[in-house]
Specification:
heterodimer; A: 330 residues; alpha/beta; Rossmann fold; seven-stranded mixed β-sheet; two-stranded antiparallel ribbon; B: 330 residues; 2 domains; 12 helices; 14 strands; globular; binds thiamine diphosphate
């Protein structure tokens, strides 16, 4: 129960964090496309939370909760989404693409690319005999991308330490998975690469963590890669205010709300004898923490243009002046 | 004449072309259910059905290849790549196949198809969703590259692109979809390969593309108040380039500035300015000036992204400076 309570706390933090982000997006304080995470917290906590600090996580265009679960500070993730200097990418990336190398966290807004990148991280880990592994999270939609197939095959023939987690939230934008994936379960595709077929109900956070630990262990022992289909449900739209009616029924969402991971963990804790008051106090603490976070974040400054273009490339030694008169200059 | 948005003009072009020729079909991610990202195909799935409006999985390489194959079989596909940033994934199909088969078949195969996409900054989406990559396609023999700048142009050019028997890369600008302009009720076509003089003037020729056309026109308006008369040319088709219209203009004004959102280095703006230098050398009072975006990934957020690309002020400033240099020289 103690572990579940910890998971509950972590998931609740992500739930409220995501709500805060949504509110900031609505106020136009987060500027770019922003993809809500509600309902998928079992994946972030169960899988991303299972990694050690030195393990690498490659995430998606819906990265904020993965990042926090991997160990990036709430401050660095939130202010990145708000385009402030204190963000992990110095405020240059926004809500769907940023890098936090000190936390071994990378994500990007192009769907499917991370499956290719993951093989390289893992290749280096293997060849350098590092006791580290790489986790690569992607959506059901990404599993239709060429890189899914190329990346899995490459990782499989070279036995690379990658845990591929397909976060199946049932939709890719307006594409329901059952219409856009030909097989019954995405995990069935594992067979094509000589891998085992593993599907977990990731709305059960304990189940998710068990599967994550086992997969990570396997990779650490050199028995990787592993592909896991982590089944969940996207409760909010693909983005805030998307035309949901075009691809799903409101009733379906209501049903999903009964199965979402935070609610399930809470029910299980209560059944296990944890006092409701104790859980409520967690809620209270988180709310206060996030309020303070928001207040702090709003005071942070934006990057300067000089800082923004400082690292486009590493200047060559004795390089000719590259900023010619033709382009806009500072 | 009715004023309609750029997006609506696209929708009308689709509608007219699809009704005229049942071999015309649109294929891409969420072009049906969602009517495309900026709603430029809203309602068409209902009207034309899934044979002509095809929602696909997230599979850019396969989508582009599917278009090439269908075109070889005599259909007229419009392949939509949601962001030009993702066209990177489809490049093999476009560059090594679509652009090569006409020649390889000694003229027997024709590929009447359009790769339709959108690029540029303006929606605060950071460096993986804001690029200007048109230069790549200009460089590939066998492709036609079009960049419309107004509702009137996009409709007439898209209809011509659909009817043309070459593969056409048709690049819209994400900041233009909700811009309104006059579009006649009756049918019209705009030939590919023809520039348009958007404003006549005597002192300096400004060649601008895509979103920059409206900026250049506004800058010209401001300069008029200072007594400077600008001629603004929109090439509309970047390749093949309508040299005649450009040369005629520069022979008249003796000064030329090329404005693109894409950075100058290695870009189409260099091609355009070479054309002027090669054909109007004796008429030029000053070398051609390029006024282009910074050579940088587009930083996140509303402030910095605008500072990395030309603005009305910067264009007016640069054109004014060019004129003063010419006058100073006497
Ligand atoms: C290569 C590429 N194609 C298209 C898109 C546009 N796009 C952004 S998110 C998305 C859906 C992704 O679905 P999925 O992989 O299931 O992840 P989810 O959004 O459900 O988390 C699409 C198509 C993109 N970002 N990159």
């Amino acid at each position: 129960m103690r572990q579940l309570q910890q998971f509950y706390r972590e998931m609740l933090l992500l739930r409220y964090f995501d709500q805060l982000c949504r509110a900031l997006k609505m106020k136009d304080i987060i500027y770019s496309g922003y993809h809500p995470y509600e309902g998928q917290e079992g994946v972030a906590v169960g899988f991303c939370g299972a990694l050690k600090p030195e393990d690498v996580l490659l995430s998606t265009h819906r990265p904020h909760c993965h990042a926090v679960a991997k160990g990036c500070s709430l401050e660095s993730v939130l202010t990145e989404m708000m385009g402030r200097r204190t963000g992990c990418s110095g405020g240059l990336g926004g809500a769907m693409q940023f890098l936090a190398p000190e936390n071994q966290f990378y994500c990007g807004s192009v769907v499917g690319s991370n499956l290719g990148l993951a093989t390289g991280f893992a290749l280096a880990m293997k060849q350098k005999k590092l006791d580290r592994i790489c986790m690569c999270i992607f959506g059901d939609g990404a599993s239709n991308h060429g890189t899914f197939h190329e990346g899995l095959n490459l990782a499989a023939i070279w036995k690379l330490p990658v845990v591929f987690v397909c976060e199946n939230n049932q939709f890719a934008e307006a594409m329901p998975v059952q219409e856009f994936v030909a097989c019954e379960r995405i995990s069935m595709r594992a067979r094509g690469y000589g891998l085992e077929e593993i599907t977990v109900d990731a709305n059960d956070v304990e189940e998710a963590r068990r599967a994550a630990n086992e997969a990570i262990e396997r990779c650490r022992r050199g028995k990787g890669p592993v592909l896991i289909e982590a089944v969940t449900y996207r409760i909010q739209g693909h983005y805030v205010g998307d035309p949901e009616g075009t691809y799903r029924d409101r009733k379906e969402v209501e049903t999903a709300r009964n199965k979402e991971p935070v609610k399930r963990a809470r029910e299980k804790l209560l059944q296990g004898g944890v006092e409701a008051a104790e859980l409520d106090s967690i809620e209270q603490e988180i709310e206060e923490e996030l309020e303070a976070l928001q207040e702090w974040a709003l005071k942070q400054e934006f990057p300067t243009l000089e800082a923004a273009i400082d690292h486009v490339g590493i200047p060559l030694e004795n390089a000719p002046e590259v900023r010619g008169p033709q382009s806009l200059t500072l | 004449m009715a004023k309609i948005t750029f997006g609506e003009a696209i929708r009308q072009a689709y509608e007219e072309e699809m009704a005229r020729d049942r071999d015309v079909f649109l294929i891409g991610e969420d072009v049906g259910r969602w009517g495309s990202l900026y709603r430029s195909s809203t309602g068409l799935l209902e009207k034309f059905g899934p044979d002509q409006i095809k929602d696909t999985p997230i599979s850019e390489a396969a989508i582009a290849g599917c278009g090439v194959g269908a075109a070889a079989m005599g259909m007229r596909p419009i392949v939509e790549i949601m962001y030009i940033d993702f066209i990177t994934i489809a490049m093999d199909q476009i560059v090594n196949h679509a652009a090569k088969w006409r020649q390889l078949s000694n003229g027997k195969v024709k590929l009447p198809m359009v790769f339709k996409t959108q690029g540029g900054a303006g929606r605060r989406n950071s460096s993986q969703h804001s690029q200007c990559l048109e230069n790549w396609f200009v460089y590939v023999p066998g492709l036609i590259t079009v960049m419309p700048s107004s509702p009137y142009d996009v409709k007439g050019l898209l209809k011509s692109a659909v009817r043309d028997d070459n593969p056409v890369v048709f690049i819209e600008h994400k900041a233009l979809y909700f811009e309104k302009g006059e579009v006649p009720e009756e049918e019209y076509l705009i030939p590919l390969g023809q520039a348009e003089v958007k404003r006549t003037g005597d002192d300096v020729t400004i060649i601008a593309t895509s979103w920059m056309v409206s900026f250049a026109l506004e800058a010209a308006e401001r300069l008029q108040e200072e007594g400077i008369s600008c001629e603004v040319i929109d090439p509309r088709t970047l390749w093949p380039l309508d040299r005649k219209t450009i040369i005629r203009s520069v022979k008249k004004t003796g000064l030329c500035m090329v404005v693109t959102e894409a950075s100058a280095e290695g870009g189409w703006s260099g091609e355009a300015s070479s054309v002027v230098h090669e054909h109007c050398f004796a008429d030029l009072r000053r070398p051609v000036k390029r006024h282009c975006g910074m050579r940088t990934g587009i930083p996140y957020g509303p402030i910095l992204e605008r500072r990395c690309i030309p603005s009305v002020e910067s264009i007016a400033g640069a054109a004014g400076a060019l004129l003063r240099e010419a006058r100073g020289k006497g």
